[in-house]
Amino acid sequence: MIGAIILGLLAGFIARALMPGKQDMGIILTLLLGLAGSVVGFLIFTELLGIGDNEAFVLGGLVGAILGAMILLFVYERFVANRTHPGPARP
Question: Which of 30, 39, 65, 85 sits at a 20 to 30 Å CA gap from 9?
Answer without folding.
Answer: 85
